[in-house]
Amino acid sequence: MDGIPFIKMHGLGNDFVIVDARTSPVEINEPLAQAIANRRTGVGCDQLIVLERSDKADVFMRIWNPDGSEAGACGNATRCVGALMIAGARRNAVSIETVAGILLASSAPDGYITVDMGKPRLDWSEIPLARAMDTVKLDYAAAPGLAGPAAVSMGNPHVVFFVDDAEKVKVEALGPVIEHDPLFPERTNVSFVSKQADGSLRVVVWERGAGRTLACGTAACATVVAATRRGLVDRKATIWMDGGRLDMEWRAEDDHVIMTGPVAVAFSGVIALPPRVKAA
């Protein structure tokens, strides 16, 4: 049977179909990415990850959203790919090239994976926004009582709203409206964040091109940066998403964002392709 071998992995329930195209190249197009990601008729995933050869790092990681668009970065996918590469290379650390730059993944205690996600981009033009404004607190309101978010890029754009109770936000209604607002010319990921009594941060995420997900690594990165800039945390935070916990640090010595969390393998298989969505 013609098909594409894959492995299904997740980080806190943020799930990925990972295809290794380093030895047998696979050309992904928008309809094929949509077909694979479809949870009813495909394998189903938050992102499709394609591993390619790199002359700058151990591997190049290409990221496809369920709507067929490409993403520049994905923190949880980087941890999953890091775990695969570390196991295959029998080393404690590997480098992963993405559209947004080269990221470093390393082994951590208890089988966790740590990823150096690099420096956040904080200028309005780098995120990007449609017009100049202070990214610590945007002059923007999404709805009554939902205004003044922070903006951060972690290789992909994020807007972070600080609210009293993230659990009560109508994410499915507000997420797509904010994602497609003209202020965000490349669309945006959306996080709703509330500080808990123990100092941790509860984060609910609407991902650009994917919708509400159980977790989002770059959203966790954007959250710790935004919360630090707002004075809510001191460069470190325990972040709780729908799928579980990530430990985050915005390192003072080099401004790099460090993320640590678990990964898991769900299953592996072969994707059988209908003729209408065969790889180009």
Description:
The structure is a single chain. This protein has two domains: 4-118 and 263-277, Diaminopimelate Epimerase, Chain A, domain 1 (Roll); 141-255, Diaminopimelate Epimerase, Chain A, domain 1 (Roll), CATH 3.10.310.10. The chain is built from four helices and 19 strands. With 280 residues, it is of the alpha+beta class. The strands form two sheets. It has a 17-stranded mixed sheet that branches. The protein has a two-stranded antiparallel ribbon with strand order 9-10.
Query: What is the CATH superfamily label of the largest domain?
Result: Diaminopimelate Epimerase, Chain A, domain 1
Number of helices, counting only DSSP H or I runs of 4 residues or more: 4
Mean pLDDT: 94
What is the total domain count? 2
What is the overall silhouette? globular
Task: Show unreliable segments.
Answer: none
Q: The CATH topology of the largest domain, please?
A: Diaminopimelate Epimerase, Chain A, domain 1
Radius of gyration: 18 Å
Please give the CATH architecture of the largest domain: Roll
Number of strand elements: 19
Quaternary state reads single chain
Distance between the termini: 18 Å
Sheet with the most strands, sense and barrel status:
17 strands, mixed
Strand content: 35-45%
Write the layout of secondary structure elements.
Layout (H helix, E strand, L loop, with lengths): L3 E8 L2 E7 L9 H8 L9 E6 L6 E6 L5 E2 L3 H15 L3 E6 L2 E7 L5 E4 L24 E3 L2 E2 L2 E4 L3 E6 L8 H9 L9 E7 L5 E7 L3 E3 L3 H13 L6 E6 L2 E7 L6 E5 L2 E8 L9
Parallel strand pairs: 2-3, 4-6, 12-13, 14-16
Antiparallel strand pairs: 1-2, 1-19, 3-4, 4-5, 6-7, 7-8, 8-18, 9-10, 11-12, 13-14, 14-15, 16-17, 17-18
